[in-house]
């Protein structure tokens, strides 16, 4: 095999590789000898098929398989010998001429092709020890737990049909048709809609206009969709709803005690409160983790500047951009609605893609130097959690990950990243800062918008 470098520009590499026809033919002969004892052809006893006959029948298909193996083996061996790590799977430019390709598959001509790839950049890690981090910490108060218990009691209330006019807290079964400028709009109708007055789950003003309604009554409700409403075609627009009240039910007072708690599979009200507190504290802890991680990543980003593999950046950008455009399409919005242009948005998201790739390489290098490992058991747990997200399709999901190494690697990557973050936190200069729940969660909202 002959390897000649034809391009070395930045992180880009191009190699001209020639594999002698004699080597290919040798591999083909060995493969045909293996097949000799496996194939069964009419007129021949098992294991007695002449190799020459096998070559005529299976030669080209076997050689195609050999060529693919040679490409993979040569790529791996060449990178090892050159001491390089490819940023992504190398690409191969094979002979396009049909006659030439046919000669290669027939074992009559050397296999000459071009291998193109980008190498991972070599860089020196900046000083990541002692990064200063302010860790916002919020504690769940008794009042917040009380509010959650009250909300849970309200959500689990039973309702009984009542006579008379609807009041705040009552649940109504209604049929309705929404209209804009007198014309019904898509998704604005329901024959058996449920609405509980006072929950604020419908368009502002919708529930309040049902107070005083009685069974069988028809009402026309006048509302205005919020400016930030998800469906662009409705946002900010005035609408009417033709409503018919079909049933009115009043909530049955809930006694919040140990017996009520047992409805949720918990032995007592005290244990239920503890469970709620733990869940709320877990949410706050996750928000704290997000804030701390963001500070660490910002600090790492500031400390590192190096050339990035263009293909990695482009792939990451496409992933981000596809998500952005899909979200806008689902919401019925445009870039103009976001006070930007497509060109400006692309520039911003490309910077985000570059940051992600850069930080990914930095975290990988830190983890490698610290010998941080992800165990098979950890990946298996992540796979189980993933499978649970697709009830009824467990086997298909399991088979997909088992048969796709790249998909399995996508489960390993976030585990590795979180382990590196934990390692960095052990070395960081962390100062706890007590904040309220509102302050902590507002920061999360601001980050999400950013």
UniProtKB/TrEMBL annotation:
<feature type="domain" description="PPIase FKBP-type">
    <location>
        <begin position="169"/>
        <end position="254"/>
    </location>
</feature>
<keyword id="KW-0131">Cell cycle</keyword>
<dbReference type="Pfam" id="PF05697">
    <property type="entry name" value="Trigger_N"/>
</dbReference>
<keyword id="KW-0132">Cell division</keyword>
<dbReference type="InterPro" id="IPR005215">
    <property type="entry name" value="Trig_fac"/>
</dbReference>
<keyword id="KW-0143">Chaperone</keyword>
<keyword id="KW-0697">Rotamase</keyword>
<keyword id="KW-0963">Cytoplasm</keyword>
<protein>
    <recommendedName>
        <fullName>Trigger factor</fullName>
        <ecNumber>5.2.1.8</ecNumber>
    </recommendedName>
</protein>
<dbReference type="InterPro" id="IPR036611">
    <property type="entry name" value="Trigger_fac_ribosome-bd_sf"/>
</dbReference>
<dbReference type="Pfam" id="PF05698">
    <property type="entry name" value="Trigger_C"/>
</dbReference>
<dbReference type="InterPro" id="IPR037041">
    <property type="entry name" value="Trigger_fac_C_sf"/>
</dbReference>
<dbReference type="Pfam" id="PF00254">
    <property type="entry name" value="FKBP_C"/>
</dbReference>
<dbReference type="InterPro" id="IPR027304">
    <property type="entry name" value="Trigger_fact/SurA_dom_sf"/>
</dbReference>
<comment type="similarity">
    <text>Belongs to the FKBP-type PPIase family. Tig subfamily.</text>
</comment>
<dbReference type="InterPro" id="IPR008881">
    <property type="entry name" value="Trigger_fac_ribosome-bd_bac"/>
</dbReference>
<dbReference type="InterPro" id="IPR001179">
    <property type="entry name" value="PPIase_FKBP_dom"/>
</dbReference>
<dbReference type="InterPro" id="IPR008880">
    <property type="entry name" value="Trigger_fac_C"/>
</dbReference>
<dbReference type="InterPro" id="IPR046357">
    <property type="entry name" value="PPIase_dom_sf"/>
</dbReference>
<comment type="function">
    <text>Involved in protein export. Acts as a chaperone by maintaining the newly synthesized protein in an open conformation. Functions as a peptidyl-prolyl cis-trans isomerase.</text>
</comment>
<keyword id="KW-0413">Isomerase</keyword>
